[in-house]
Amino acid sequence: MNQKLVIYNSLSRKKEEFKSIHPEHVGMYVCGPTVYSDVHLGNVRTFLTFDIVYRYLQFIGYKVRYVRNITDVGHLVGDGDEGEDKIAKKARLDNLEPMEVVQKYTNGFHDVMRIFNILNPSIEPTATGHIVEQIEMIQDIIQNGFAYEKNGSVYFNVRKYNESNNYGKLSGRVIDELMNNTRDLDGQDEKNDPLDFAIWKKAEPQHLMQWNSPWGKGFPGWHLECSVMSTKYLGKTFDIHGGGMDLKFPHHECEIAQNIGATGCEPVNYWMHGNMLTVNGRKMAKSEGNGFTPEELITGNHKLLDKGYSPMTVRFFMLQGHYASTLDFSNEALQAAEKGYKRMTAAIKAISHLKPSDKSDEDIHALQKLCYEAMNDDFNTPILISHLFEAVRIVNSAKDQTIQLKAEDIQLLKILFEDFFEKVLGLQVEDEKSNDALTSQLMQFILEMRSKAKANKDFATSDLIRDELQKMNIQIKDTKEGATWSINE
After folding, report:
1. Total structural domains in the chain?
2. What is the per-residue pLDDT across 386-410, written as a single tens digit (0 to 9) for each?
3. For 368, phi and psi rounded to 5 degrees?
4. d(CA 143, CA 216)
5. Beta-bridge partners for 9
């Protein structure tokens, strides 16, 4: 392993040479989804970011234990310390058991990860599967003097912790400024201080998800699960902790406080955060009307999309932006990515047809070195892709016989794409007429036929299309923006 990898550490706010706690083994924890709704594209980008980190670390020789949790309890509406659990609320509204909600959206999450060729983690633990460990960590935090119980709930004492530590060091927040910006919230009078946060909440009788504890029936705070599961599977201190930029405060800040409060150890050596998505320069959000799902992006069934885009085109597009930078979606950008992706895959297919010469006009070894250098510089996928396009130029020039390449250089070009296009970037060569693409095109055509039938008040035909699709386990859902489809498992 002779690659000198440098990554940006959110804690130190600078690039640092990566050094694992164990020379040949990396522990990486990434905050996974809260499974109460469909996956959105922000999730896809976050998990794609750490899929690249996972792939590259393995590619350069590390053994990686990658832990990505499933939040299936404790995440309250509004992310505060009061209110209803998001999964319990969804279960109540849909008249389902909470675990039915969890299973449904966990399955959906895994489906989306597979579509975009995002690798499974080494371990995928759930919050509900670690209630005992969460209670034990709370007891340790109380014993160490950093938490207190009030009326069946347990709160972390931020000011007490800050006397010997620095609450806010990850996000750059100052505790006095936080105090000035704290609003009066319902239930806040129960805390000793408005800055304190819940690590265990008393459950009201109607609360659907609750467990016995030394403080009565309740449920864990959202921040606690990550502290518990990361330390259980990776140790009190581990290498990399990742997540979206929106988790830096308060979630990751609270994690640090909990870990140090329980174990006395700094939990993470390198903190990494992926940035957000925008659409035509505006933040992607349902309230903005620009929050489309992965399915809508692939089918093109959204008012802001001119057409649908294949999963690999979307993956390729996302990798053209550095993970720490904002990425802006637009039809123009997606179409440019589609053209670039097709140009690159065409070159990959053409390599096997190149005719070798007895001399070479290009230094492929130097290009290979540049590819490593790009990834060693904080996983810089945009720069890597630019080098791969240089390889595309070489392939096309050799194909047109405007340059010459030796047989070993043609083989090295093939290896270059196998290594960096396939193994590192996780991209695949798609057949334009693949079954998935054809299915999407046919379904779009069928939905348009049904829409025309409804517009013509031919409800018999409209209902017939819906009913026949249901027999094939294809569910049609009518929305304000138009009809969508999904395959029932």
Report:
1. 3
2. 999 999 999 999 999 999 999 999 9
3. -60, -40
4. 18
5. 14
